[in-house]
Amino acid sequence: MSPAKTGQPDRRQELMVTPPVSVLELDDMLTRLRLTAIRDQLDNLLEEAARKELNLREALAWMCAAEIARKDQRRIAMAMSIAKFPFVRTLEGFEYEAQPSLDPGQIRELATCRWVANGDTLLLLGPPGVGKTHLAVALGREAVSKGYTVQYVSAMELISTLARAHNQTALESRLSQYGKSKLLIIDELGYLPLEPDAAHLFFQLISRRYERGSVLITSNRPVMEWGEVYSFGEGCAYGDQVVATAILDRLLHHSHVLTVRGDSYRLREKRRSGLIKTSSAVSTIPTTGKEGSP
Ligand code: ADP
Ligand code: MG
């Protein structure tokens, strides 16, 4: 029924005849609509739109783009802090010349995050200092910027957190916490032997994520040695080997393996600065015992 027939004022006409809104009213409306980028940059946006001689539709689209850019930026900043990366490392900051064993094309392919979308596993293997943590963080950041949820944790912290939760009968909530992100980065697996109990906890986590979310694992041990990592060598019970095999089975199914060979980047920097002369001097370099620190 038309407004004339109902006796109600025509809302469209009302809007058209509304006198120009004050700056404050417009500010309030933009705040209520949570269009804070448009609100904060309104004068600049309007001036720019006039300068570019945009029509109303183009100007509106341009302002929407400014709003979306701000919201994306905030979402990414929030997701980066949730991911708890230990430091900032980027693919742009990675020198491929320093690591000729890596194929830049393969890294570019991984940077598309198709493997994350597919829930695949990525194993980054190689000796200390060759850039495994750097690449893990950089690929994690790529995943965040593409809208995936990411969580970074060192293997040591992961295992101790799960073990503590197990003792406090809070394992379920911890497992679901580590199970919910689309990509879980487990850094430096294999630096410490995992006791059989820890192996079981780790196995539960991997089973939970299996074919649901991606896992990126960095390790200084070849995959074939991982079985030993989950046990105490000769004293190891048959069950532990079964667990180790089950973990490997799940991890290696749908997996990509990147093996980084070559010299430690840290030692390379020291060698360059003249602190040491050859790689045979490796043992004279004091180690902090903390890999992955910047
Ligand atoms: P890993 O995890 O393999 O032990 P890291 O990723 O911690 O090694 O690397 C040690 C340091 O050297 C880090 O600060 C990292 O950013 C830097 N680094 C390693 N490889 C490269 C590289 N190819 N280009 C730039 N920086 C690198
Ligand atoms: Mg590392």
Concise account of the structure shown:
It contains 15 helices and five strands.
Structure commentary:
This protein folds into 2 domains: 13-79, no CATH class; 84-260, P-loop containing nucleotide triphosphate hydrolases (Rossmann fold, 3-Layer(aba) Sandwich), CATH 3.40.50.300. Helix 10 (155-167) crosses helix 12, helix 11 (171-179) packs across helix 12 (196-209) and helix 12 runs parallel beside helix 14 (238-252). It has helices at 3-6, 11-17, 23-32, 36-40, 42-51, 56-83, 104-111, 114-117, 132-145, 155-167, 171-179, 196-209, 226-229, 238-252, 265-272, and strands at residues 121-125, 150-154, 183-189, 214-219, 255-259. Mean pLDDT is 83; it is low at 278-294. The relative contact order is 0.11. It is an alpha/beta fold. Residues 89, 93-95, 98-99, 126, 128-134, 218, 265-266, 291-292, 294 line the site of adenosine-5'-diphosphate.
Shape: elongated
User: What is the number of E strands?
Assistant: 5
Order of helices and strands: HHHHHHHHEHEHHEHEHHEH
| CATH superfamily label of the largest domain | P-loop containing nucleotide triphosphate hydrolases
Instruction: Give the C-alpha Rg.
Output: 27 Å
Mean pLDDT, all residues: 83
What's the architecture of the largest domain in CATH terms? 3-Layer(aba) Sandwich
As laid out across the biggest beta sheet, the strand order is 2-3-4-1-5
Query: Which CATH class of the largest domain applies here?
Result: Alpha Beta
N-C termini distance = 71 Å
Total count of domains: 2
Oligomer: single chain
| Biggest β-sheet description | 5 strands, parallel
Cofactors, ions and other ligands in the entry: adenosine-5'-diphosphate, magnesium ion
List the total number of helices: 15
β-strand amount: 5-15%
